[in-house]
Design brief:
By secondary structure, the protein is an all-alpha fold. The protein has 18 helices and one strand.
Length: 379
């Protein structure tokens, strides 16, 4: 489903996301600007905190996707799934927005948008369609670039969000406008499935909030008091999720449909949009507060989260298409859920590794100099 993904600048989301090179939507540093005499290498140094955020977020995305086929019958797993789904993509999208702040439709950034988001979308949308057609024995599966399949929605959403960045940065009160759009989308069943616009609109407030974030906001989030408050926050969220798990439709968390399409009163769409935004924001802050600030063993993997995001879907869907979960029903038990979680986390970790990122660069960040004018200003 995160993006994305640049990670998620390539979001998801997931990500998972790719940012413009200097700041690489999640990689640039949130530290104070370097002195004028700083070396070019120092200027491009990545902030380990944001790479840590991206890696941990993509692990949550993969694990949550792995839980979907096996969580039926386990109220506790459903509750955990609801908590993770409440904030994992919002967190990824917020970081994507934060690293999209300088997008201005200039030629270099448009090139990166095309090669880092549009081209991967076309390639992986095609790949997932063919994968379903042949592995799931679904010959009628069409290759459609206007109807995103599975997790590719994040890339098309990120493309749309980035293209509209100058608009959001021009408005006096962009967040209330984005929230209004999300609320209207949630009560508009006629939007349809093209480009997954329901998700584009309903997740929009998190991207816009990311655009408004400043380095000092992340400094506030990482204060000791916030970390301590995050503990009872997640404990309370777990208890609430356990209580509401049998009563709430998961479709609210996916933000892919209007209230009417989920057989709910039209007004509930607007109410749930605001409620979920508040819950997602609180849990995202709690998550960001506990992400390590220093270099960790997994920090380097933050640069490859777009690969983890785009590849792990083949693993999850492959297991579903081949009937793995149907044949091994014990995977729905406590031990099986642990194994599924560990395998998903381990697999996505390998997929984010530098060797995989280098091998997949032709698809996630292709060199397409042949496709662009050397001097766009000249016609």
């Amino acid at each position: 489903m995160f993006q994305a993904p640049s990670v998620f600048t390539r979001a998801p989301l997931p990500p998972a996301t790719r940012e413009p090179e200097p700041r690489r939507e999640q990689k640039p540093t949130a530290a104070a600007p370097a002195p004028a005499q700083a070396s070019p290498t120092a200027a491009k140094r990545r902030d380990p905190y944001f790479d840590n955020v991206k890696y941990l977020a993509i692990v949550l995305v993969a694990v949550a996707h792995a839980w979907e086929p096996v969580m039926d019958g386990s109220r506790a797993t459903r509750a955990l799934y609801m908590i993770v789904y409440t904030f994992h993509m919002p967190a990824f999208i917020l970081i994507s927005g934060y690293f999209s702040r300088t997008f201005d439709m200039s030629a270099p950034k448009v090139k990166r948008l095309i090669t880092g988001v549009a081209v991967p979308y076309v390639l992986f949308e095609t790949a997932y369609s063919l994968f379903k057609r042949y592995v799931d024995d679904s010959p009628d599966t069409s290759i459609s670039l206007v109807d995103p399949l599975y997790l590719t929605w994040f890339l098309i959403a990120l493309f749309i969000w980035r293209v509209t960045t100058p608009i959001w940065l021009t408005l006096r009160h962009p967040l209330p406008v984005a929230l209004a759009i999300a609320m209207l989308a949630s009560i508009s069943p006629d939007i349809g499935d093209d480009l997954d616009l329901q998700r584009v609109f309903q997740f929009l407030p998190f991207f816009v909030l990311g655009l408004l974030m400043k380095p000092e906001h992340f400094q506030l989030v990482r204060r000791r008091e916030v970390r301590l408050l995050a503990l009872p926050l997640f404990a309370g969220a777990l208890l609430f999720a356990y209580w509401i798990a049998p009563r709430m439709q998961l479709g609210w968390l996916y933000r892919a449909n209007s209230a009417q399409e989920m057989d709910a009163p039209w007004w509930s769409g607007a109410v749930m949009s605001l409620a979920l935004f508040g819950c997602a924001l609180a849990l995202t802050i709690g998550f960001l507060a506990w992400v390590p600030r220093r270099n960790m063993w997994f920090t380097v993997l933050g640069a490859g989260t777009i690969c983890g995001y785009l590849l792990h879907g083949f693993l999850i869907k492959g297991a579903v298409y081949t009937g793995l979960f149907d044949r091994h029903t014990w995977l729905s038990g406590p031990a099986g859920l642990v194994i599924v979680s560990v395998v998903a986390a381990g697999a996505v970790t390998l997929m984010c590794s530098p060797p995989v990122a280098r091998a997949l660069k032709f698809a996630t960040e292709p060199d397409m100099k042949w496709a662009f004018r050397k001097d766009p200003a000249k016609r």
